[in-house]
Design a protein that fits this description.
This protein is of the alpha+beta class. Helices cover 47% and strands 21% of the residues. The protein folds into two domains: 3-74, Orthogonal Bundle (Helix Hairpins); 82-224, Heat Shock Protein 90 (2-Layer Sandwich). Helix 1 (3-43) packs antiparallel against helix 2 and helix 4 (123-140) packs antiparallel against helix 5 (192-202). The longest helix has 41 residues, at 3-43. The relative contact order is 0.12. Bound molecules: adenosine-5'-triphosphate and magnesium ion. Adenosine-5'-triphosphate binds next to helix 4 and helix 5.
Length: 230
């Protein structure tokens, strides 16, 4: 690496570090003040109001979630690639999500190739990636909608597609969605797609997003079928 490249890389990392630090501070600080307010109310003797306890619990849960996500992003770890049936796995993950209350207004359409397709993959990482992609679709369809989950063999790959008919992504923003901390949502930190992209990368796959404003979004993941003998 040349001296200029080295300096540029260091500068980029410094900027990234500052961004991460201020994000953590912001996300955690807001919730801590909610907790302090709740405790103040309890100390004043108002102990019969369930919303105070709920507020404290929610703030604590949010801090846990934010910290966990930052850690997954910062230290994704070495994937544990274990041979398994990816179709069966996709069926399990989507069926579980479908049964959740928050998806009650979303109609799931599953079109997963019936056959058993075995590939090496890290179940936890892949589950998180699928959840994040599907949750993005849910966020994009606040009044409900249709969510299609499809899989099909495509050459040396299995292609997994998640398609929603939600609000879509403006063309000029499409290039930013994989950037860490890019978010258009108030309560989120913008790490879902960065984490999903890394997961696909460590599986030697590809992830692509196509979207049209007001029409919907299509996330395509290609995962290699071959078992690499290493
Ligand atoms: N299916 C989708 N429909 C519309 N917009 C989307 C979709 N998926 C992603 N986006 C856009 O891309 C942005 C980045 O997505 P990403 O999942 O990385 O972060 P997030 O959902 O905002 O936060 P987090 O995933 O950390 O909770 C979103 O804020 C949203 O603007
Ligand atoms: Mg997300």
């Amino acid at each position: 690496m040349s001296a200029e490249q080295d300096t540029a890389e260091r500068k980029r990392w410094e900027e990234e570090r500052e961004k991460i630090a201020s994000m953590i501070a912001h996300e955690v600080r807001n919730r801590l003040s909610a907790i302090v307010t709740g405790v103040d109310i309890l100390e004043m003797g108002i102990v019969n109001n369930p919303s105070v306890y709920r507020g404290i619990r929610e703030a604590v849960q949010k801090i846990q979630e934010v910290v966990t996500r930052f850690l997954i992003y910062a230290r994704p770890g070495i994937p544990e690639l274990i041979n398994g049936d990816i179709n069966l796995f996709l069926m399990e993950v989507t069926t579980n999500l479908e049964s959740e209350k928050r998806f009650s207004r979303v109609k799931f359409e599953k079109d997963l190739t019936g056959e058993s397709i075995k590939i090496p993959f890290d179940r936890d990482m892949m589950r998180q990636a699928m959840i994040d992609i599907v949750l993005n679709s849910l966020d994009a369809m606040p009044d409900g909608g249709i969510l299609k989950v499809r899989s099909a063999k495509k050459g040396a790959f299995i292609e997994v597609r998640v398609i929603d008919n939600g609000i879509g992504i403006p063309r000029d923003k499409l290039g930013q969605i994989f950037q860490p901390f890019y978010t258009t949502k108030k309560e989120n930190i913008g790490l879902g797609l960065s984490i999903a992209e890394n997961t696909v990368k460590v599986h030697r796959g590809k992830i692509e997003v196509k979207s049209e404003k007001q029409k919907g979004t299509r996330v395509c993941i290609l995962l290699p079928l071959d078992k690499k003998k290493e």
